[in-house]
Amino acid sequence: MQKAVRKLRAVADPGEWSPAESAELYGIRNWGAGYFDINEAGEVTVSVPAEGKLATVSLMEIIEGMKQRGLQMPVLLRLDNLLEAQIALLNDSFNKAIQTAGYQAEYRGVYPIKVNQQCAVIEEMARVGLRYGHGLEAGSKAELLIALAHLDPEKGYIICNGYKDEEFVDLALQALRLGFRCHIVLETPTELPIILEASRRLGVRPMLGVRVKLAAKVEGHWNESSGDRSLFGLTTAQCVELIDALREAGLLDCLQLLHYHLGSQIPNIRDIRAGVQEACRYYAALRQEGAALGYLDLGGGLGVDYDGSQTNSHHSKNYSLDEYCTDVIETIMSTLGPAGVPHPVIVTESGRATVAYSSILLFNILDVTSYEPADAPPAVAEDEHELVKNLREVLNGVTAKTAKECYNDANFYREEIRELFRRGQIRLRSLSLAENIYLHIVWAIIAVLQKVKRPPAGFEGLEESLADIYYGNFSVFQSLPDVWAIEQVFPVIPVHRHDEAPTRRAVLADITCDSDGKIDRFIESGGMKHTLPVHTWQEGKPYYFGVFLVGAYQETLGDLHNLMGDTNVASVRVHGDGSFEFVREMSGDSISDVLSYVEYQPQQLLERLRKTAELAVRRERISLAQRQEILESFAASLRGYTYYED
How many Cβ atoms sit within 10 Å of the Cβ of residue 302? Predict the structure, then answer.
């Protein structure tokens, strides 16, 4: 029976396995977008454009470089080349589609700072975007200051979204004085009086945009950004009022941009086309009213194929980048052309698709809990409790025909035995024996049902319920908040040992001691699964995992659950010869840092402990030497990493 259990638990024959089979199992070539793969040594690799070549480096080589530099797990790895590659790909794809279709205007992308506000990301975005005139979208005053400090006034556009007060508007108008092409997008009617007054006071004619509420609805997690009930944007009636107010103020020619936003991840190309078409109708109508529109801002929505299925599921998209660009351009041309409206400059706020690929969360496994019985079914002594003997008899009778009956009996006897233990009527060792027998019964049932063409109902998810728990050195809440909050799926895969068969299945738990602190939805070649194929954990040997495509939103949405702070961060640039350099290393939050975030003063805590230790010396509980050792240990902990340290 035990051999059958082991065979069942194995994903494949351990003696016959190749890295290519791992690539197929984990679907890395589906979601990796050509960037990620597995080499013959069984290690995950990243291939990036570098100096006119395609360079490939193993993530294990990068991890070794981290270790040599003293960066402990977990680490957020940023690959600068991938950020550069995605910006180039987006701009090149639009420019190719414009040339092919004969479109009579240009494309100008802007990156929404909110998607990932980290300084290293924005600096790289501004550096690479300079050659394309790629700009930034600011949804707050702080983000506008970032944009003004990083962009060349002669190059990138700035799009100001979000709810704006007088100071926000003043900053945007001052940006125009500096030479920036800074569009102030009206999100609500209440912003117009603020803009008009500031424009008069400063003597600056604004570059205005208007966000409209489209009737079009989209699929996906973020579909509440679309439709009549979307939070921001003007209704048709409010658009008419805006036109009248601007005409009266002599500023109708300042209305130059039409903007809409249907969501940051639109999985269905049909919804994208519908949104563009409806927006073009608004664009043409506002032009007829006298607005000097010349820009059409499609907002975000360009999706990321997180699960590699190339479908319209929430975690995927059923279109390529080339198809997206072509459909956008063809829809604009077919809608505005018959109306005699000149082609507008196309603006997109593609954030997710730009930065998602560039970041990987790397962590190590600390421990494993396995729900597997002992090597052989245990014997039951004559003086053992009768219910334990009955449970052992159930094990002897497991067959395909009796599986359902045996499963019901096993659950009944186990619950009765547990109840006896709660009442103090059975020994701990008897309970332990019963639990072990129960596991043997369940795995025996799983083994016999594996050979049945049509297993009886009621056994769905039985094997998954007995999967291992692999404890990872990370916090879901800090580094992967969308996994917890909205059940977002990210590709998760071991980054090495792919020349071995993954013979176990597991869920991944973090170190926050919270039942929600886990990953239990995984991408696999056969579809979405609740367990992940993993290799047998070998105590004392490192086992590393990567969570991929986490560059969008995850870095700044995290919270301080259990006071787990930001992880260590490493930014790496790969060169054309396959070598790489660490261009940035940033230590994660110390314990002192996170305590200060929640209003503790580390020095005051240290002083309180000093008083407690001094009192212990006076009461002769500890020596002076021990007192000093305690205080040094406490001070070292304040300086230490919030995650598990070797």
Answer: 25
Element (H, E) at 481: helix 481-485
Per-residue pLDDT tens for 453-494? 777 787 877 878 889 999 999 999 999 999 988 889 999 999
What phi and psi values does residue 182 have, to the nearest 5 degrees?
-110, 110
Every domain range in the chain assigned CATH 3.20.20.10: 105-350
Residues 6+ apart with CB under 8 A from 46: 35, 36, 56, 57, 59, 79, 82, 574
Considering the four listed CATH numbers 1.10.10.60, 3.40.50.2000, 3.20.20.10, 3.40.50.10090, the one that applies to the domain covering 105-350 is: 3.20.20.10
Question: What is the reported pTM?
Answer: 0.91
Residue-wise pLDDT for 98-130, tens only, equals 999 999 999 999 999 999 999 999 999 999 999
User: Phi, psi (5° rounding) for residue 234?
Assistant: -100, 145
Positions of CATH 2.40.37.10 in the chain? 1-100+356-366+467-588
Could you give the 3-state DSSP secondary structure of residue 161? coil
User: Could you tell me which residues are beta bridge partners of residue 523?
Assistant: 528
pLDDT along the chain (646 residues), means of 10: 40 76 96 96 96 94 96 96 96 97 97 94 93 94 94 91 93 93 95 96 96 83 55 90 96 97 93 96 96 96 93 93 97 95 97 95 95 84 93 92 92 95 94 93 89 79 87 94 91 97 94 90 88 93 97 84 89 94 93 90 91 92 92 91 88
DSSP tally for the chain: helices H, then strands E: 22, 23
Q: What is d(CA 130, CA 162) in angstroms, rounded to the nearest whole number?
A: 25
CATH topology of domain 1-100+356-366+467-588: Lyase, Ornithine Decarboxylase; Chain A, domain 1 (2.40.37)
Pairwise CA distance, residues 386 & 582, whole Å: 66
